[in-house]
Design goal:
By secondary structure, the chain is mostly helical. The protein has 14 helices and 6 strands. The strands form 3 sheets. A two-stranded antiparallel sheet has the order 1-2. α2 (48-57) runs antiparallel to α3 (64-73), α10 (202-215) crosses α11 (222-235) and α11 packs parallel to α13 (285-292). A hairpin with a 5-residue loop joins β5 and β6 (310-313). The termini are far apart. The chain has 3 domains: 26-105, Endolytic murein transglycosylase (Dna Ligase, domain 1, 2-Layer Sandwich), CATH 3.30.1490; 107-189, Dna Ligase, domain 1, CATH 3.30.1490; 192-297, no CATH class.
């Protein structure tokens, strides 16, 4: 009789042991992610159960219930950090859990295009989910931060290097700005010797590069635009760059009037000779290179052909003819 009663207990013990063994083996067995990897976004306050389901849907976790139960039993479910996690290598469920607890590995991607102003960078960061634009603007205008980063009094404009950044989801605004300025320092370091040979300070290089960046989007034209500006600076001629007027008036996205060209803003290169007080945008690497290595040209003028390219002229008569031709066609 006792043997008969023991049978169910033995069967139950064996089943529990086998089940525990299966779960343990599953938690230690790597899953190969889909081709191209998987990207899982963990939002602030998301329950671990839903995160496990996300991992399952992304193809990197076989049994979400097993991992959820383990994480809860070990009090690890509340240690998960919000952010974007890119999984490209085979990983076990327990390794996944460890990965999700590392805030340094939680990334979010944001692209800052060439030619964006500091205001536009703040908007891009806000739209990417890193915080309000006003908070970033406040950080950008911090006098102590500018001193610490050895930036000019005109601010961070020009020194927020255009690139694609992988930032921690909960990154501090100041850290994000420091990261962009550090990227600028990395990219500009190799240009220091050429810059000095061209007789430019760092601020002058960035300011000139920002004008070049805003004047043309064509790679082959950047050195020519730079050549024109260098020629004008050497001869003491005003640069007469429309983007500087737009920046000084904050007339972004609107057409300039003839009256705007006589505005007394310090950024107006029609009414003030030389470079403006500081950069008018954040230039990319190619524009920085053009600023310190301009094309050798006798051109002093250029006008838009209305197709993204420009007509270059060495004298005012030729320039006026080009202006009439392309303004009439416009």
């Amino acid at each position: 009789m006792r043997r008969v009663l023991l049978v169910p207990f033995v069967v139950c013990a064996i089943a529990i042991t086998l089940s525990a063994g299966y779960v343990w083996r599953d938690l230690h067995t790597a899953v190969v992610p889909p081709a191209g990897g998987a990207l899982v976004s963990v939002r602030v306050g998301a329950p671990f159960r839903s995160i496990a389901e996300q991992l399952h849907g992304a193809g990197v976790l076989r049994h979400p219930f097993f991992l959820s139960a383990w994480a809860r039993s070990q009090h690890l479910d509340r240690r998960v950090q919000s952010g974007d996690y890119r999984i490209t290598q085979p990983v076990t469920p327990l390794q996944l859990l460890e990965l999700l607890q590392s805030s340094s590995l939680a990334l979010h991607w944001v692209t800052i295009p060439e030619g964006y102003t500091a205001r536009q960078v703040a908007v891009a960061l806000e739209q990417a989910g890193f915080g309000g634009r006003d908070v970033f603007r406040c950080v950008m205008e911090s006098a102590s931060l500018l001193r610490d980063l050895d930036l000019p009094g005109t601010g961070v404009e020009g020194f927020l290097f255009p690139d694609t950044y992988a930032l921690a989801w909960a990154i501090e605004p100041e850290t994000a700005i420091r990261t962009m300025v550090a990227r600028f320092r990395e990219q500009s370091a190799s240009l220091a010797e050429i810059r000095l040979a061209a007789g430019l300070t760092e601020v002058e290089m960035v300011t000139l590069a920002s004008l070049i960046e805003k004047e043309t989007g064509r790679a082959e034209e950047r050195p020519l635009i730079a050549g024109v500006f260098h020629n004008r600076l050497r001869l003491g001629m005003p640069l007469q760059s429309d983007p500087t007027v737009i920046y000084g008036l904050e007339k972004f996205g609107r057409s300039l009037t003839r009256g705007d060209l006589s505005d007394r803003s310090p950024y107006n290169t029609y009414t003030h000779a030389g470079l403006p007080p500081g950069p008018i945008a954040n230039p990319g690497r190619a524009a920085l290179e053009a600023a310190v290595s301009p094309a050798v040209t006798d051109a002093l003028y250029f006008v838009s052909r209305n197709d993204g390219s420009h007509e270059f002229s060495a004298n005012l008569a030729d320039h006026n003819r080009a202006v009439r031709r392309y303004q009439r066609s416009r």
